[in-house]
């Protein structure tokens, strides 16, 4: 990311009800210990503050993810659904939004509706959807990983369609860091909020616990017969025997996970469109994401809402 983009990004969350830095201290590797929560262990993947319990911190350190129940209200989720519907029907148009279709559904040439949009990306210019990235209860947890100067590096709303039989609704196992060569990786976190009940039937998030402690693996398109969606790369040398955990979540539950955690999602075997909202967050400033000089598909950051 160039200096101009970084400067623009810096302004963004300054306007957006950023959390008070009172409980947050320096990155734990600096050796600083928070007066509010002294834990004798050396933590590598979480920062010292009083938000996470010791048990929650230990869980994230060990597994690379943490589910927080009931974090986003039904009312907010309904508003995001309504706005998503308007975007799909082209009642709302955004210049920089990326609209993605499922490769097997795109061939059907259907009229614009929620049935043809698998995912939108880069919704930061839509004030209604961007509200999601600014919800205080989301930022509160994000801050446990990024520290107080938070930026949204990427935003998505996924509308996983019913599988057409070709298994193209799957998302291969991957690491998000493959898509953004930024760092330090331990200060980046992805938030994934279930916008309805999600389990293995409609293709829940699948994680390989503990893999955040490993390195970035080579990714490529999986050799799947029914087709693979553009940019849906997967890890090639994946060990089929490693334990997969299927995260069953209720509407409003949010899982926070590390960008090296290996994850994906299975087929949607229901007739519903499984919806989740995702921002990927990172810190800004000299300790943050400044190593990234180029991004994989031309993403150059958020625009300040109140310049
Ligand atoms: C600081 C860092 C920031 C960055 C952070 C990043 C974090 C990332 C985190 C993790 C990220 C996770 C990983 C990620 O998610 S990465 C995903 C990134 N997303 C993209 O790259 C989406 C870009 N989208 C597009 O390019 C278009 O929407 C495409 C080209 C896909 C469709 O174009 P359009 O809308 O105009 O469609 P059309 O109906 O006119 O069809 C045109 C042709 O395209 C075929 N087609 C249609 N759909 C697909 C498909 N899905 N897969 C393959 N092909 C497809 C279609 O059959 C037809 O082919 P043909 O019949 O002519 O042969
Ligand atoms: N043996 C495997 N090798 C490579 N990738 C796998 C393997 N098993 C699962 N995956 C990946 O993990 C994702 C989730 O797997 P999961 O088994 O939950 O989904 P599914 O096979 O579509 O559904 P189900 O097993 O519930 O019928 C899949 O979409 C696929 O990308
Ligand atoms: O919700 C899903 O299917 C997983 C999406 C995902 O991991 C991603 O887009 O990077
Ligand atoms: Fe991902
Ligand atoms: Mg399976």
TrEMBL record:
| Protein's GO biological process | fatty acid alpha-oxidation
One Pfam entry name: PhyH
Q: In which pathway does it act?
A: Lipid metabolism; fatty acid metabolism
Catalytic class of the enzyme: oxidoreductase
The answer, when asked if Lipoprotein is one of the entry's keywords, is no
Reaction catalysis annotation: phytanoyl-CoA + 2-oxoglutarate + O2 = 2-hydroxyphytanoyl-CoA + succinate + CO2; hexadecanoyl-CoA + 2-oxoglutarate + O2 = 2-hydroxyhexadecanoyl-CoA + succinate + CO2; decanoyl-CoA + 2-oxoglutarate + O2 = 2-hydroxydecanoyl-CoA + succinate + CO2; tetradecanoyl-CoA + 2-oxoglutarate + O2 = 2-hydroxytetradecanoyl-CoA + succinate + CO2
Instruction: Output the superkingdom of the source species.
Output: Eukaryota
Q: Which Gene3D superfamilies match?
A: q2cbj1_9rhob like domain
Keyword annotations: Dioxygenase, Iron, Metal-binding, Oxidoreductase, Vitamin C
Name of this chain's protein: Phytanoyl-CoA dioxygenase, peroxisomal
Which cofactors is this protein said to need? ATP; Fe cation; L-ascorbate
InterPro entries with a match to the protein in the record: PhyH, Phytyl_CoA_dOase-like
Example GO molecular function term? metal ion binding
Q: Which family does it belong to?
A: Belongs to the PhyH family.
Write down the EC number. Answer: 1.14.11.18
Q: Name one GO cellular component term.
A: peroxisome
């Amino acid at each position: 990311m160039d200096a101009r983009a970084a400067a623009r990004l810096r302004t963004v969350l300054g306007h957006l009800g950023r959390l008070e830095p009172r409980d947050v201290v320096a990155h734990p590797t600096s050796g600083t210990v928070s007066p509010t929560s002294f834990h004798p262990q050396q933590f590598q993947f979480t920062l010292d503050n009083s938000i996470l319990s010791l048990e929650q911190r230990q869980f994230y350190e060990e597994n690379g993810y943490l589910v927080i129940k009931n974090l986003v209200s039904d009312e907010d989720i309904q508003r995001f659904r309504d706005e998503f519907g308007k975007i799909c029907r082209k009642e709302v148009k955004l210049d920089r939004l990326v609209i993605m279709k499922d490769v097997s559904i795109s061939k059907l040439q259907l009229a614009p509706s929620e049935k043809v949009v698998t995912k939108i990306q880069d919704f930061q210019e839509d004030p209604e959807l961007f509200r999601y990235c600014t919800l205080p209860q989301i930022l509160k947890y994000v801050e446990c990983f990024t520290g107080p100067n938070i930026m949204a590096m990427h935003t998505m709303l996924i509308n996983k369609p019913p599988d057409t039989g070709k298994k193209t609704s799957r998302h291969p196992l991957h690491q998000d860091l493959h898509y953004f060569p930024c760092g330090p990786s331990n200060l980046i976190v992805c938030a994934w909020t279930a916008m309805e009940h999600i389990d293995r039937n409609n293709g829940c998030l699948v994680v390989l616990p503990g893999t955040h402690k490993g390195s970035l693996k080579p990714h490529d398109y999986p050799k799947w017969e029914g087709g693979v969606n553009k940019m849906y790369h997967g890890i090639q040398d994946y060990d089929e025997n490693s334990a997969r955990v299927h995260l069953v979540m209720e509407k409003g539950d949010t899982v926070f996970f590390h960008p090296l955690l290996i994850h994906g999602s299975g087929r949607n075997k229901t007739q519903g469109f499984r919806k989740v909202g995702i921002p990927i967050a990172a810190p800004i400033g000299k300790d943050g994401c400044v190593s990234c000089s180029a991004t994989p598909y031309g993403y150059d950051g958020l625009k300040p809402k109140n310049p």
